[in-house]
Design a protein that fits this description.
Length: 167
């Protein structure tokens, strides 16, 4: 719930020369490794993963990053081996994902795998998803969807998606 302002965002980065990793393994069944509720905060250059060994169901395979805050930026993150890579949700207006590498998220389920690289919805403001690399996710690499959700005001460009297991 870190909160900056539009003119003075908080920037959260790993220390220069260090490797910072958030492991969602022990986050609990309904909590992601990183939940972002605060506004105008940039998360930059670290990893989010889940080292739980099983992929047979969602048991233990918790979500990576869930974004709800306004004006949030995810920049050059690496998100992998989680139940779902990034949830980029409706409350997160005027937010951006740029230069992230998101891969191998999800778990086996029927009739296809479950867990997307990016799962997103939006109704107001603009969401930007630009220059990310997504691959090997168990369902869809990028999924903008919701049975009762709104999907307006997106800029989605220059992303590379490959080898998602979803149809």
């Amino acid at each position: 719930s870190l909160t900056g302002t539009a003119t003075a965002p908080i920037i959260l980065r790993q220390y220069v020369g260090e490797r910072a990793i958030i492991d969602a393994k022990n986050s609990g069944p309904s909590l992601p490794g990183l939940r972002i509720d605060g506004a105008y905060t940039w998360y930059w250059g670290f990893e989010v993963t889940n080292t739980w060994p099983s992929r047979s169901l969602n048991e233990g395979r918790h979500k990576g990053v869930e974004v709800f805050g306004v004006g949030v930026k995810l920049i050059n993150l690496t998100v992998y081996d989680t139940g779902q890579g990034v949830g980029f949700w409706t409350p997160s207006t005027d937010s951006e994902m740029y230069g992230n590498v998101i891969f191998n998220n999800g778990f086996t389920a029927q009739p296809m795998g479950a867990g997307h690289g990016i799962y997103t919805q939006n109704s107001a403001g603009t969401k930007t998803i630009r220059a990310n690399i997504l691959g090997g996710d168990y369902a869809y690499g990028l999924h903008a969807y919701g049975t009762s959700a709104v999907l307006n005001n997106y800029v989605i460009e220059q992303n590379t998606l490959f080898d998602a297991r979803g149809l």
